[in-house]
Design brief:
Structural class: mainly beta
Order of helices and strands: HHEEEEEEEEEEEEEEHEEEEEEE
CATH superfamily: TolB, C-terminal domain
Radius of gyration: 24 Å
Number of strands: 21
CATH architecture: 6 Propeller
Number of helices: 3
CATH topology: Neuraminidase
Helix content: under 10%
Distance between the termini: 63 Å
Number of domains: 1
Largest sheet: 5 strands, antiparallel
Strand content: 35-45%
Shape: globular
Length: about 290
């Protein structure tokens, strides 16, 4: 009798002592139930916040590092002008190359300046440090319907990255194309594609958020990790893509009070992230987020 009681008690305790002997639990691989990895920046606490005093930069639309540390290249909507700015918000130089146009992106590669129109057309400006600039333009197979807003530089590919915003009300894939700087051609196969529905699983809508879909407005490559950082101004999201295979590594919400219309992203050599935003009802602004150690 005592033996049977002891045996029964041991059987009841066995699952508690050795759970793996009793059953095998399958991991839940449904992305909707997984916590996305953290982005290595505190998006609520910038270490630097500057405002652009110039009215010309109220609608700042891009951000690119230059060959001078602490100086960044940008452009503004409807103006065919490159602006060189520092992290205090001061404009240190400007380069005129066109009267007007719906310019959305700017990037400096070597000594060359590149500008992007929303219809996918690229403009190359050289000899800009001298009196007479040399300008060339390149048409691509993209169009106004693609609403191309993001321009970045991929050093490994030696290519410009063109991010298509598309229609914020639609959930189709958002493509990022590579413009090869050796052949000066836009490659037909997208370099990266982002599924807005996957972004929504990782960062769900807030109670007061408009139900837009992820629509790229800026793109840049982190020089330390090689990851591709993509911003959506429409939905106020930041998505990080693996630079090798393009899968989403992380996603986060952007605070619209800090960045009301984020349309530019860049990094310094130490990996700190800079994001520029249109001013909406005020001045354009530039925020820096320190890389977590």
């Amino acid at each position: 009798m005592h033996y049977l009681i002891k045996k029964s008690l041991f059987a009841l305790c066995l699952p508690l002592l050795f759970p793996n002997l009793c059953c095998t639990q399958k991991p839940n691989t449904d992305v909707s139930y997984q916590t996305p990895p953290e982005i290595p920046y505190d998006l609520q606490n910038p270490v630097l916040k500057s405002f652009f005093a110039s009215e010309e930069l109220k609608e700042i639309s891009a951000l690119s590092p230059t060959d001078t540390p602490g100086i960044y290249l940008t452009i503004a909507d409807e103006r065919g002008v490159f602006y060189f700015v520092d992290t205090s918000g001061k404009m240190v130089n400007r380069v005129y190359f066109r009267d007007r146009g719906d310019f959305e992106g700017a990037e400096m590669v070597g000594k060359s300046l590149w500008a992007l129109k929303s219809n996918g057309k690229l403009y190359l400006v050289e000899n800009w440090e001298k009196d007479s600039i040399v300008e060339k333009d390149f048409k691509t197979f993209l169009s106004k319907e693609d609403d191309v807003e993001g321009l970045g530089y991929d050093a490994k590919r030696n290519a410009l990255l063109l991010a298509c915003k598309g229609d914020p009300d639609s959930s189709y894939l958002r493509n990022i194309y590579a413009f090869d700087l050796d052949s000066l051609q836009l490659l037909e196969k997208p370099a990266y594609s982002i599924d807005p529905l996957e972004v929504n699983k990782l960062v769900q809508y807030g109670e007061t958020e408009k139900h837009d879909y992820f629509s790229p407005s800026a793109v840049a490559i982190n020089p330390l990790s090689g990851d591709v950082y993509v911003i959506s101004a429409a939905l106020k999201r930041l998505v990080v893509l693996d630079g090798k295979d393009g899968h989403i590594r992380a996603a986060a919400r952007i605070d619209k009070k800090l960045l009301p219309q984020p349309e530019g992203i860049s990094f310094d050599k130490m990996g700190n992230m800079l994001i520029s935003s249109e001013g909406k009802m005020g001045q354009g602004r530039l925020l820096m987020f320190k890389l977590r150690s």
